[in-house]
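Aim 2 progress update. The chain analyzed this quarter is reproduced below.
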Amino acid sequence: MNLKELTIKQAHELLEKREITFLELTQGFLSEIKKKDKDIHAFLSLSEDEALEAAKKVDDRIAKGEQIEMLAGIPAAVKDNILIRGGKTTAASKILENYIAPYDATVIKKLKEEETVFIGKTNLDEFAMGSSTENSGFGPTKNPVDLERVPGGSSGGSAAAVKAGFCVYALGSDTGGSIRQPASFCGVVGFKPTYGAVSRHGLIAMASSLDQIGPITKTVEDAAIIFEAIRGKDELDSTSVHRDWGDFTKPLDIEELKIGVPREYFTHGLDPEIEKNIKSVISKLEKEGAKIVEISLPHSDWALATYYIIMPAEVSANLTRFDGIKYGYSEISRPTGDHPKGEKLLDIYLKTRQEGFGAEVRRRIMLGTYILSAGYYDAYYKRAQKVRRLIKKDFDFAFENIDVILTPTTPSTAFKFGEKTSDPLSMYLADIYTVSVNLAGVPAISLPSGEVGGLPVGLQLIGKNFDDIKLLQIAKTVETIIKEKNHT
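Predicted structure tokens:
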């Protein structure tokens, strides 16, 4: 049995036929992690005892002849900014190094009801701020495809765990591309649902109007299975919604499909070999009967600048709670001499945040505080929100005539460690094709589209608001065509 290739449905069928037990499956993944993760560092912590106990419970149900759900007993990994009660949740930050989650995130609660087995928490850029997982307070994760290269970020640990065969699927979070970009770099599937489709309750907030939890999987079908389990209205998240989502298994006629290709995504900055790869898929889709339509998303050029104003502004607000008083790490200063009480408390705040937060987190807090400060709010934040509205209108207008938008996921393949760390702007440019999706709140998915120079290439499909199921149906069709193309 090849753990690397095992999908949810395949694992479920093996277990139902009793060709393997849930306990054996979980032990197999844990053994693989212990052998190989010292080189990759996908995990920050393992839940070995809890995972084996959960697996055994499902085995006992099977032995009694009971019916089990599709996700029952399936080993999964979880990004370490999503709370699992009783376990550490660090957000890869020293400031939360010993924080124990007091409750389950809503997505975890839902997956526990499905009897999912959680084998561990995965590494990420600190507080999900980064595009390479080099910003983790506990050391970087390496790309299983090439250990000299980054896995992408911020959900780099989750993408690496799936690619390395350490779990069947993983959960990540996506604020500006943090599921799709690492999925592209590692050669797996990464799905960001519509904002509000999945509850954010229990996700450590980075930028609340942009964050969304989603799955990283081996196939589109697996992404659809996870989405079905975690989506829906949650009373604990006022931004979540109830919808009639539709049926993923319903067949799709490719000849009725209209695919928009934005001219702004195929200009300067895109690796020519990636462009060639994506355009070959477009040609294949056209040959199969899909109608290809050139479209314009005219405000795309301002998306990155808009994102890097709105996101740090929300970061500075969300991270004020980490002050050394209630959560995690605290560097209590003990100044000598007589000082006003207020000054002593300020010393605690300043030292805790200086030593507990990494450089990138401090950079974004300072940027956000400046953006929101008196005299600059209107010039930056308010103006960025106006541009955000225009970006959303671009998508709304485009979807009046098409079913889906097709773009590259990233402008390059996975880069080497240290290649962009000295220049934050070049690192931010790694998100150039993904941030507009979060600003507009629409769903998007990254699929493996082949390789360039032995490294994975990702193709991004963007859907209409709350048309997640149709996007997944289209993605499955495109996935099949890509596999056929790569095997000919």
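The chain is about 40% helix and 15% strand. The CA atoms of residues 222 and 264 lie 31 Å apart. These observations will guide the mutagenesis experiments scheduled for the next reporting period.
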